[in-house]
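stage 2 :: seqdesign
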């Protein structure tokens, strides 16, 4: 495998993002509709946090709701804001960071997604699934 392949070659560029003013019900619907597990939280194009599906599971019974169900029980979601639930001090990488370096970061931390930021603007997201698919393609 080549050592300096940039993360931009494997990152997701079609981003699903939340604003910090969105509600958790919207987050749940986005997670399920797009079958994703991590959503950047932005203010304009600047990342201010990350919300993961497991963040929602910690505060609710979201996993008890049918995956295909459009209606979610919002009682718990009305008690919290995205700002209260999201991770705020987010580790980021830029689009020229090597895939190897991204793999080292994800292997050493307790999260599974990294926002990709160039010049302060969110341009992508890379997940452990992206890394696994990259490795599969190498063999």
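stage 2 :: out
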């Amino acid at each position: 495998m080549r050592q300096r392949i940039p993360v931009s070659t494997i990152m997701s560029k079609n981003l699903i993002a939340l604003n910090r003013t969105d509600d958790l019900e919207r987050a749940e619907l986005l997670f399920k509709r797009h079958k994703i597990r991590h959503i950047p939280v932005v203010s304009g194009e600047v990342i201010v946090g990350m919300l993961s599906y497991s963040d929602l599971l910690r505060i609710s019974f979201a996993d008890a709701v049918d995956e295909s169900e459009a209606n979610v029980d919002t009682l718990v979601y009305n008690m919290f804001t995205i700002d209260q639930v999201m991770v705020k001090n987010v580790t980021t990488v830029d689009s020229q960071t090597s895939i190897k370096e991204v793999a080292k970061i994800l292997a050493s931390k307790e999260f599974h997604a990294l926002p990709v930021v160039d010049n302060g603007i969110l341009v992508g997201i890379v997940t452990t699934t992206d890394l696994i698919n990259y490795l599969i393609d190498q063999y």
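stage 3 :: structure notes
- The chain has one domain: 7-138.
- The beta strands are 18-19, 38-43, 46-52, 113-118, 121-127.
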